[in-house]
């Protein structure tokens, strides 16, 4: 198939070609991979400015999305590719294979850096889902930071650059410019733009932006970041968000309230301890879903309210495919037990789903939320378990709500009434508002270009 780029994709490809380091903050469905491949192909094959390139991506994206995009378009048939995944022996063999593009999953970045160290051979590096390097304390960030001076070109791709707070930006931008814009250290960045919002002595529990800091940050990175929102460039079918409230029965409500208040719940003789707020949150969300792990990691069943609601949605779908997102193993097990036709997403299932061979598919947002093109197989999403992560939430929804979708997408959220589920929904909405400000602030200077191209 011949690739015909939309004007915004051509703009993105040119942006990559003209910047030795940059980020494409493109909303899900805008074709970041195609734009990047076009730029890499022109830089490598037409201009001969770069040679072998490393692509770092989430595992499923590395295994499926990038190779599929390369096979899909006629213009990239002269690209040779080697996927660096699997056992150490398989990875070493993949590295020894001559190729234009080497694709590795992000979990193996530390291994790759330790393997080469100062002999790092990749002058051009693409970081797909740049936001997965948002923690300055993570091993993967520290590893890439070591070899960043050995790179000539770095291209960052993401649709969710600041999923939780603008503090997330520093590690990502550092991997692009080495600290030129936001400071050489996270401490410098934090002290320049933030102040302690909650502290006890020298211990700071939370940080808040100083007055005017948002605009300063946006301005500082605008020359290397191009941002686009799908709603501005794509004529997508309407997306409808639905909240389906489920109600706990009196006994279940008492159990929920007891755990919330006392942090200890006795279920059938098994004690469930919530030692801190994070654990408590996890326990309460499990309980809202209908089951909970006790201290021996045994599953204690609470209610079937969400299963009943899910079954009704599937029945009302009248045979139309349904994509269900879950968080906990006991959610997966209970859904499969109640709905035997439900199938867990595995490697190789994307094509089957898109061909209508899988009527009900179960997916975990963290492992399947990036890069998978599922829009041809359905238009109904159900969130059985909610997630605190805006990034996983948006990316997961974009598996269906993306370019190529021909039907209105309906996203159902199963929310247990008067539980932490409701708070999660509020937080996701508030985080989304903050991120929209970031994306709008560094939006592409593209309106003139679109006018010139008559788009």
| Average pLDDT metric | 88
Radius of gyration: 23 Å
CATH superfamily of the largest domain: Tandem AAA-ATPase domain
End-to-end distance, in Å?
A: 23 Å
CATH architecture of the largest domain, by name, is 3-Layer(aba) Sandwich
**Beta-strand content bin:** 15-25%
Number of domains: 2
Strand order of the largest sheet: 3-4-2-5-6-1-9
Number of helices: 19
Helicity level: 40-55%
State the CATH class of the largest domain.
Alpha Beta
CATH topology value of the largest domain: Rossmann fold
Summarize the biggest pleated sheet.
7 strands, parallel
> How many E-type strands?
19
Report on the architecture of this protein.
This protein has helices at 7-18, 32-46, 59-72, 88-96, 109-116, 139-147, 169-177, 186-193, 213-221, 230-233, 250-262, 277-289, 305-316, 329-338, 349-354, 365-368, 390-397, 420-441, 447-453; strands at residues 21-26, 53-57, 81-84, 101-105, 124-128, 153-158, 194-200, 203-209, 225-228, 239-246, 264-267, 270-273, 291-293, 299-301, 322-325, 342-344, 360-363, 380-383, 409-416. By secondary structure, it is an alpha/beta fold. The chain has 2 domains: 7-234 and 442-453, Tandem AAA-ATPase domain (Rossmann fold, 3-Layer(aba) Sandwich); 235-246 and 304-418, 3-Layer(aba) Sandwich (Rossmann fold), CATH 3.40.50. The strands form 5 sheets. A 7-stranded parallel sheet has the order 3-4-2-5-6-1-9, sandwiched between helices. Strands 10-19-18-15-17-16 form a 6-stranded parallel sheet, with helices on both faces. Helix 1 packs across helix 2 (32-46) and helix 5 runs parallel beside helix 6 (139-147). The relative contact order is 0.13.
């Amino acid at each position: 198939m011949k690739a015909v780029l939309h004007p915004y994709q051509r703009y993105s490809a040119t942006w990559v070609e003209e910047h030795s380091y940059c980020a494409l903050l493109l909303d899900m469905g805008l074709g970041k991979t195609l734009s990047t491949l076009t730029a890499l192909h022109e830089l490598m094959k037409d201009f001969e400015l770069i040679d072998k390139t490393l692509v770092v991506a989430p595992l499923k994206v590395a295994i499926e999305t990038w190779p599929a995009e390369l096979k899909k378009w006629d213009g990239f048939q002269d690209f040779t590719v080697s996927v660096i995944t699997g056992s150490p022996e398989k990875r070493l063999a993949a590295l020894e294979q001559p190729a234009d593009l080497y694709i590795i999953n992000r979990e193996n970045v530390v291994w790759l850096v330790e393997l080469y160290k100062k002999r790092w051979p990749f002058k051009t590096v693409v970081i797909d889902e740049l936001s997965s390097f948002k923690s300055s304390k993570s091993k993967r960030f520290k590893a890439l930071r070591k070899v960043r001076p050995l790179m000539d070109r770095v291209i960052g791709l993401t649709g969710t650059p600041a999923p939780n707070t603008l503090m997330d930006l520093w590690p990502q931008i550092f991997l692009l410019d080495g600290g030129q814009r936001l400071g050489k250290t996270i401490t410098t960045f934090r002290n320049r733009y933030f102040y302690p919002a909650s502290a006890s002595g020298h211990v700071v529990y939370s940080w808040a932006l100083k007055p005017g800091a948002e605009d300063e940050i946006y301005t500082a990175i605008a020359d290397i970041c191009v941002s686009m929102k799908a709603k501005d460039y794509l004529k997508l079918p309407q997306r409808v968000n639905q909240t389906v409230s489920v109600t706990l029965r009196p006994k279940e409500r008492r159990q929920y309230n007891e755990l919330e208040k006392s942090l200890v719940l006795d279920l059938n003789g098994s004690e469930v301890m919530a030692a801190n707020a994070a654990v408590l949150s996890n326990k309460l969300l499990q309980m809202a879903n209908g089951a909970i792990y006790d201290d021996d990691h045994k599953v204690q069943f609470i209610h079937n309210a969400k299963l009943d609601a899910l079954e009704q949605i599937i029945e009302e779908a009248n045979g139309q495919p349904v994509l269900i997102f879950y968080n906990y193993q006991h959610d997966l097990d209970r859904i499969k037990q109640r709905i035997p036709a439900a199938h867990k997403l595995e490697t190789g299932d994307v094509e089957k789903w898109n061909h209508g061979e899988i009527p009900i598919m179960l997916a975990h947002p963290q492992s399947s939320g990036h890069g998978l093109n599922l829009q041809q197989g359905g238009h109904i999403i159900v969130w059985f378990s909610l997630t605190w992560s805006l990034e996983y939430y948006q990316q997961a929804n974009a598996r269906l709500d993306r370019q190529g979708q021909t039907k209105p997408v309906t996203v159902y959220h199963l929310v247990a009434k008067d539980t932490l589920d409701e708070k999660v929904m509020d937080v996701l909405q508030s985080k989304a508002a903050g991120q929209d400000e970031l994306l709008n602030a560094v939006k592409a200077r593209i309106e003139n270009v679109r006018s010139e191209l008559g788009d």
